[in-house]
Amino acid sequence: xxxxxxxxxxxxxxxxxxxxxxxxxxxxxxxxxxxxxxxxxxxxxxxxxxxxxxxxxxxxxxxxxxxxxxxxxxxxxxxxxxxxxxxxxxxxxxxxxxxxxxxxxxxxxxxxxxxxxxxxxxxxxxxxxxxxxxxxxxxxxxxxxxxxxxxxxxxxxxxxxxxxxxxxxxxxxxxxxxxxxxxxxxxxxxxxxxxxxxxxxxxxxxxxxxxxxxxxxxxxxxxxxxxxxxxxxxxxxxxxxxxxxx
Length: 246
Fold this sequence. Notes:
Layout: H1 3-7, H2 11-14, H3 19-29, E1 35-38, E2 50-54, H4 58-61, E3 71-72, E4 86-92, H5 101-111, E5 112-121, H6 123-126, H7 130-135, H8 137-146, H9 150-156, E6 161-164, E7 167-168, H10 189-193, H11 196-201, H12 203-219, H13 221-225, E8 234-235, E9 239-245
Parallel strand pairs: 1-2, 1-4, 2-3, 4-5
Antiparallel strand pairs: 5-9, 6-9, 7-8
């Protein structure tokens, strides 16, 4: 069973594309006239020139909107596509779920004629994010065990331009660090269900840390400790966009 068959049932409700992040992805794709979306999920950030989406989870496929690109149920490590199938291939917040990273990246390189775009995160930066460093270090350790170092990805891609992706304070895409200025959101089960790090680590394991966060919010300690964040419009939590030209 694909991971998101178990944890992705409410994904479309909490992981709505953020237009500012979407603009960065659109710019990274450049003038590509055809795109393959690998690990496509419910179709977030999928551009109109997408010719096919690839996704292993039936639950996620079922949440794709009407009119979305055709989708095939398959894994990144064995794309059912011919070589040079599209101008560009994109893989957004998905490589950490692959069972064979080298095979998956090799498939992206085989299918892309001109460009590969990967959205990921730098675990060295993310470990400093207050949620994991102060409240959920065990979840951070779990996440780092599956995270892919940016330099390793760059090497496998044969070189890539790496661009930071700042997270807006009102980000509409509820990924791991999206609520850096809205800490109370992490106390909501629906929000946590859309964050794979928390959903896979499990409610029982994260409960002690979340109880500490709730207490710090009630007492005002969190706001005292992170007053500097409340004035910021965006935040670098380590998300990175890699663009590799073929």
